[in-house]
Design brief:
CATH topology of the largest domain: Rossmann fold
CATH architecture of the largest domain: 3-Layer(aba) Sandwich
Number of strands: 21
Structural class: alpha/beta
Number of helices: 24
CATH superfamily of the largest domain: Thiamin diphosphate (ThDP)-binding fold, Pyr/PP domains
CATH class of the largest domain: Alpha Beta
Strand order of the largest sheet: 10-9-11-12-14-13-19
Largest sheet: 7 strands, mixed
Radius of gyration: 26 Å
Number of domains: 3
Helix content: 25-40%
């Protein structure tokens, strides 16, 4: 059925046929995600709601803006992308998120939480200014409903004098279970009709912003969704509406329903690795047992960041703020100002949202907050919005901030141990998977690098992080066959640089390797330092462009951050 589905065919289907279509969609999504990796439970929960939207509204003339967008798989299957769905999240294949470049049905690119209502308002305002006539719908989950951007957008609805349709898809989850006062508020609204008076009273908050609130309905009941959406489509001619629906995350797949957090995002089958997050969790628990000032903060990603054990063991020192990264950053700064030792665990791509707070609240006050920056570097299949390749650049410009990049999970543990007594802002950045344990000179010291391969020739490769050093070691082995010796240096602290080691290097050619963009990154700092020294400096990093989805290794090779780039440069220099 899916193979031949079109929007016009969908609108002519009977309820029985639509229900069968929903089951086929679930089967295709489950099989594909288990093979390719991706977001499973969130997509399974949104099947009926998405089918009902496509049955009632007229896409792409009407505009559907997803919040985050990881729940868009049904939408893609219904909009002419079934034949390519098996390529989702693979290099050159479909994106796991809505993408304007991919289809006219994707009206706005997304990937981070909290943007949908602002985007819907902007599109609606453009519609009004241009004298056009179509509906604009923002589909947002209850996890994103915690994000402050939503309320900035709500505050503009009357100001913009336009109408939009917001669907609150409430499944009690973001990645982790939804937390906070807004979640408790939504729970009140979700109670049965015996609480109708209380519900009506609480729903008035949305009216203050200019929305008519309508809820709560079963978002997995296809027939009821079609009826309700048809009714609201008519109301949108004169007013903005918030429709509150409840859905079951993982609907139709028993394991997902029972384990919605574990199946929010699934990795494609790969080699067994040790995740840096596991090391973070175990080490922080050990440190916190000795230091009662240590606290842990996360933004809706407790288990993904390895903090479940810490949260269970030290609940009074654990804070999950929901999807509110800026708030989390200021919370850490203020706790540190009041005498605690906070550790803020966050993905690199989401830390970007807190740049101003890192600079002003943490670093300008020189407060001892440790930011544990997970999924740094290329993250792979989630694409442009999730590649953590900018953190060395935007963090490197901030005064008072020390930046550490461990070479492996063992060194990560050492840096965490040393951080407990470090009384200043610190960022530790690392990828998801730890695959190697490198040799160690046994002289770990805060702010100091180490020489892993002595070399003895005219070339030195300075790498920061596990991936960069893996490239350096592979290049050493390849060039050894040509009689070329290369020193390998572990730049485990990017800021400040180890000026003593840099001053003592006798090699004439210095090659830097990093899992970050070239502009403003580690290599640029080394090049700047050596600018008047006579040294030849070659920087190997990512060029000035957004990086699409694909496998980590294949993307790194394609973008020139590989042992091949080191080898080719050395050979060219030898033959110059």
């Amino acid at each position: 059925m899916l193979e031949n589905i079109t929007c016009s065919k969908l609108k002519n289907m009977t309820l029985k046929e639509l229900l069968a279509l929903c089951e086929e969609i679930r089967e295709v999504i489950t099989a594909t995600v288990l093979n390719n990796g991706g977001h499973l439970s969130s997509n399974l929960g949104a099947v009926e709601l998405t089918v009902a939207l496509h049955y009632v509204f007229d896409f792409p003339a009407d505009k559907l803006v997803f919040d985050v967008g990881h729940q868009c798989y049904t939408h893609k299957l219904l909009t002419g992308r079934y034949s390519r769905f098996n390529t989702i999240r693979k290099k050159g294949g479909l994106s796991g998120f809505p993408k304007r470049e991919e289809s006219a049905f994707d009206c706005y690119n997304v990937g981070h939480a909290g943007t949908s209502v602002s985007a819907a308002l902007g599109i609606a305002k453009a519609r009004d200014v241009k004298g056009e006539n179509y509906n604009v719908i923002a589909l947002i989950g209850d996890g994103s409903f915690n994000n402050g951007l939503i309320y900035e957008a709500f505050n503009s609805l009357r100001l913009l004098n336009t109408n939009i349709f917001v669907i609150l898809n409430d499944n009690g989850m973001s990645i982790a279970p939804t937390v906070g006062s807004m979640h408790e508020y939504l729970e009140i609204l979700s109670q049965d009709d015996g609480q109708r008076a209380k519900k009506d009273k609480h729903a008035k908050i949305f009216e203050r912003f200019g929305f008519a609130y309508d809820g709560v309905y079963d978002g997995n009941d296809l027939e009821k969704m079609i009826t309700k959406l048809t009714e609201i489509k008519e109301r949108l001619k004169t007013q903005s509406v918030i429709l509150h629906v409840l859905t079951k995350k993982g609907k139709g797949y028993a394991f997902c329903e029972d384990n919605p957090e574990a199946t929010h995002g699934i990795s494609a089958p790969n080699e067994k690795v040790t995740e840096y997050s596991q090391v973070l969790g175990k080490t922080l628990v050990r440190l916190a047992e000795k230091n009662e000032k240590i606290t842990a903060v996360t933004a809706a990603m407790t288990s993904s960041l390895g903090l479940s054990e810490f949260f269970n063991k030290f609940p009074e020192r654990s804070v999950d703020v929901g999807i509110c990264e800026e708030h989390a950053t200021i919370l850490c700064a203020s706790m540190a100002a009041a005498g605690l030792k906070p550790y803020y665990a966050v993905y690199s791509t989401f830390l970007q949202r807190s740049f101003d707070e890192i600079m002003i609240d943490i670093c300008s006050q020189n407060l001892p907050v440790t930011m544990c920056v997970d999924r740094a570097g290329i993250s792979g299949a989630d694409g442009e919005t999730h590649q953590g390749v900018f953190d060395l650049s935007f963090l490197g410009m901030i005064p008072n901030l020390t930046i550490a990049v461990p070479k492996d999970t063992a060194e990560f543990e050492k840096i965490l141990e040393a951080s407990a007594d470090f009384n200043a802002p610190l960022a530790i950045r690392y990828p998801r998977a730890g695959k190697k344990i490198f040799p160690c000179d046994g002289n770990f010291a805060f702010g100091k690098w180490e020489k892993l391969v002595a070399g003895g020739g005219k070339y030195a490769v300075i790498g920061c992080g596990e991936r960069a050093l893996s490239i350096a070691f592979k290049a050493v082995e390849i060039l050894k066959n040509d009689g070329v010796e290369i020193a390998v240096i572990n730049a485990r602290f990017v800021k400040p640089l180890d000026y003593g080691l840099l001053d003592g290097l006798t090699e004439e050619v210095v090659i830097t390797v990093e899992d970050n963009v070239l502009a403003g990154g580690f290599g640029s700092l080394v090049a700047q330092y050596y600018s008047e020294s006579g040294k030849v400096v070659k920087n190997i990093a990512y060029s000035d462009k957004f990086i699409p989805h694909g496998g980590v290794n294949e993307l790194m090779r394609e973008l020139g951050v590989s042992e091949g780039s080191v080898v080719n440069y050395v050979k060219a220099y030898e033959n110059r």
